[in-house]
Amino acid sequence: MLDLVIRGGQVITPQGVGRWDVGIEGEQIAVVAAAGTAPTDAARVIDATALIVSPGGVEPHAHLAHAIMSHPEEPLATLGPEDDTQGMACGGTTTHIDFAFVRPGNDIQPVLEQRVARWKGNAYVDYTFHITLAGALPLRVFEQIPEAIQQGFPSFKVFTTNILPPHPKRAGNRIDFGRIHLAMEKVAAHGGIMVVHGEDEDLVQFNYERFREEGRLDGSNLHLVHSKLSELLAFRRTIALARAAGAGVYFVHTSAREGVQSIVEARALGLPIYGETLHQYACFNAEYYKTPRGFCSHTYPSLKFPEDQAALWDGLVTDGLSTLATDEYPTSLALKLRGRTIEDVTGGNTGAEARIGIAFTEGVVKRGMSLPRF
User: Fold this and answer.
1) pLDDT digits (tens, 9 = 90+) for 265-315
2) Is the preceding omega at residue 301 within 30 degrees of 0, hence cis?
3) Could you give all domains of the chain from N- to C-terminal order, each with its CATH number?
4) Residues 289/305, Cβ–Cβ less than 8 Å
């Protein structure tokens, strides 16, 4: 017995777009049927004529209830699931993927249990977690990867750089490429996937040092610290390691044309390499940093140049990029705009509620993205 029937709309499915009835039973789609054929006895009926009916969106990159890294002297955190997921639901996102950080001294299972307990009963949408392997983890932690995959957590995030300069009260996230390769081998053998923040550590940290010495600390220089070359070097090296290990890689927040090109070339070789970008990268460039609220659209890595925006949209509309995310990092506007230098601007975005609407307007309406790709 169906509880809800949506009738008359243009329905998006993996097989294409058409005029179908959508029947809901409980909280699941129970049937997609030819127009006018879904039973409506005892069901609530919504007339979706002249409307588009889309599956719920998946936000693949969120940092809720997460320590804020840009102001290490203060114990601040982003909004939790009880607040931020309300906006997700209102904006059409019905699932989000957050992160469980495993650092030296921790094991995977207790960290997962802690995050799951924090979310249980507090989220308005479905959720799961990428497991983040951060720092010089003991090798025994990598032996725990198969069990985590078996439990339903198949994605493992790594940072190839620390996104900010060292600070005694800020834990670093970078993990060395030796450990990344080991993680790839474990993940590949058990059907998981790597999730990679790809920037070159040597370049990024040298740029911080150089710009500090040269007095170029203004936050409008962030795109020169987190440079296009840094993304190119990290993506190429990561892809080479993944190819050797037989691992799949999902690059988060691809920001530069060079990153898109690296992904496209790898996919042309038949490698399981995927890319994500963010709506702020696609909609803004580094000139926006110079405006009064420009840092609202900053995350790590930085906004880049107009040619990078064009490459990101081409990757989204045609091929090369697989997802549009937010890097959701919900803070107050005052906190987001407090930092003004390359060393203290808060990254992330508060945009999960608006993401699907932005994708539709900018992708489908303005650039001709097909509805199935949307």
Assistant:
1) 999 999 999 999 999 999 999 999 999 999 999 999 999 999 999 999 999
2) yes
3) 4-53 (2.30.40.10), 57-367 (3.20.20.140)
4) no
